[in-house]
């Protein structure tokens, strides 16, 4: 077996470093060398590759971000870019590749397989937008960060009888908002899966205010509304003052949670062991608490209607 390459791609996610560590440690356990590819697919095209030794990954488990750095590469979207990437992989004698990233990154991995490289994907994205797996690495940490921020905002909402709109990330997936609300972090939520219009948000707020609840937190998934417009609409309609907080990049960094660390370790080990067994074009996941693998072609950032969870929310938010 030649060397194993590993890269992180797309948005950084807490726990990516733990996955890198697990890949290196497991490969070394089986007497295989690992090459670390920097800056995702763009770094691969540019040959930014160095040997990753065990000592380089020894103390990275509690660090957010990715020691390999990451990027979004438009050049890799083109076949010419991918052919350049293949040439580089051959030059460095890398026939096996572990890709840690979200939906786009995993789609990219599938394309490299078509060009003759054995690839295994590991889901690393805070968005949790991959339908084939219950969790992606980074989601749990980000959820905890969101809840911590929301808790602070709620203290002020309570003290001042205020209404706040909080925008969380997720691209086109409402999981960060949904799980935050399930964890008691918000009273009204609007997600791509369950979109509320301005009027409905106002009538829910009105109901709460009329029943004497003057502090209200509305969680909205990014990219759904013009938040300034929503804020103005609520202010005019209900004659209250509203604040809007966009959590932004605060959500992506930080120490990975214990859950993400254990998940990333399990996934990193599984990825290398699959490669060793001769598998390719697979991606690792977790379903009902079991590590699984699926063909990369099953990867889609589709909107799944998590009806069971929204049903629970109805019991909580009224
Ligand atoms: N359909 C695709 N084919 C080939 N490469 C892709 C494809 N989609 C995305 N990629 C590569 O993966 C990178 C990361 O994808 P992106 O969707 O931005 O983030 P993530 O993987 O975190 O969801 C892109 O910048 C691009 O280089
Ligand atoms: O950092 P950028 O390029 O502005 O992208 C923002 C997007 O990245 C994310 O933080 C993470 O998305 P990915 O994991 O798919 O890269 C999304 O929640 C957000 O929409
Ligand atoms: Mg993504």
Automatic annotation (TrEMBL):
NCBIfam families documented for this protein: PFKA_ATP, PRK03202.1
Protein known as: ATP-dependent 6-phosphofructokinase
InterPro entries hit by this protein: ATP_PFK, ATP_PFK_prok-type, PFKA_ATP_prok, Phosphofructokinase_dom, PKF_sf
UniProt function note: Catalyzes the phosphorylation of D-fructose 6-phosphate to fructose 1,6-bisphosphate by ATP, the first committing step of glycolysis.
Phosphofructokinase domain boundaries: 3-275
Residues where substrate binds: 125-127, 169-171, 222, 243
Top EC class for this record: transferase
């Amino acid at each position: 077996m030649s060397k194993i390459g590993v890269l992180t791609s797309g948005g950084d996610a807490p726990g990516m470093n733990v996955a890198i560590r697990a890949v290196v440690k497991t490969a070394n356990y089986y007497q295989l060398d690992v090459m670390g590819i920097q800056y995702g697919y763009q770094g691969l095209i540019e040959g930014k590759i160095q040997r990753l030794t065990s000592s380089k990954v020894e103390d990275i488990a509690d660090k957010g971000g990715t020691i390999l750095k990451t990027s979004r590469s438009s050049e890799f979207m083109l076949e010419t870019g991918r052919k350049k990437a293949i040439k580089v992989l051959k030059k460095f004698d890398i026939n096996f590749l572990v890709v840690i990233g979200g939906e786009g990154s995993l789609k990219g991995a599938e394309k490299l397989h078509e060009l003759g490289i054995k690839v295994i994907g590991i889901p690393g994205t805070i968005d949790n937008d991959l339908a084939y797996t219950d969790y992606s690495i980074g989601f749990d940490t980000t959820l905890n960060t969101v809840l911590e921020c929301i808790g602070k905002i709620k203290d002020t909402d309570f003290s001042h009888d205020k209404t706040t709109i909080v925008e969380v990330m997720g691209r086109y997936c409402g999981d960060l908002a949904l799980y935050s609300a399930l964890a008691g972090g918000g009273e009204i939520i609007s997600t791509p899966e369950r979109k509320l219009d301005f009027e409905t948000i106002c009538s829910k707020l009105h109901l709460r205010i009329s029943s004497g609840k003057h502090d209200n937190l509305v969680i909205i998934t990014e990219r759904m509304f013009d938040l300034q417009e929503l804020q103005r609409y609520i202010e005019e309609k209900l004659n209250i003052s509203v604040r809007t907080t966009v959590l932004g990049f605060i959500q992506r960094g930080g120490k990975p949670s214990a859950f993400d660390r254990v998940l990333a370790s399990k996934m990193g080990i599984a990825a290398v062991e699959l490669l060793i067994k001769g598998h390719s074009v697979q991606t690792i996941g977790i379903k009902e608490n079991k590590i699984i693998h699926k063909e990369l072609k099953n990867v889609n950032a589709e909107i799944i209607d998590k009806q069971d969870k929204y049903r629970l929310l109805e019991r909580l938010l009224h």
